Amino acid sequence: KQEVTQIPAALSVPEGENLVLNCSFTDSAIYNLQWFRQDPGKGLTSLLLIQSSQREQTSGRLNASLDKSSGRSTLYIAASQPGDSATYLCAVPRTDSWGKLQFGAGTQVVVTP
Amino acid sequence: SAVISQKPSRDICQRGTSLTIQCQVDSQVTMMFWYRQQPGQSLTLIATANQGSEATYESGFVIDKFPISRPNLTFSTLTVSNMSPEDSSIYLCSVQSGTNEKLFFGSGTQLSVL
To answer: How far is A76 from chain B (nearest CA, A)?
Structure first.
């Protein structure tokens, strides 16, 4: 069974610093990996999706890398801002259905002004 | 991308009552998914809602507790029945849009059971 782990569980940085969030998964036979943002008490916003054939995906200040062989993905957020404060979740599709996701527990990020 | 409207956004309910959560999508989708996020936890899949057939439930979730309707390709409801404080969670619906493989989520329903 696929297991998804996110480290650290929580992270606090001053504004302007770069953020590095880690995600690991036990079964490397994944189709893709998706990063989400969740604000307190709210739903999820999709940030980036990396296909299994890709090593990197970028959107603005966000960059996600994927190393299937080692079972790892990293989300980089450059020049963090207080508005980046949220919980960040990574997820991979289950093998029985692409629509069913296995989520990590998330990394709670606080960016202090 | 898909735009999902989910309501109510939050509710406070009494033990033993039921709440129905609605999810409306701006385009036709084959499958809709319902997730639960208990306090401090990550998301757990409850069931897959298929149009024209019964929902498929994950291990640990049963139809009597979480009945689901899917009357058409843009709408679904999840009912949380006979609620107890342990049902206090955020409930989210999700769809996979086209061939993009990205999943999109509704804004969630934050449920508190007293």
So the answer is: 20
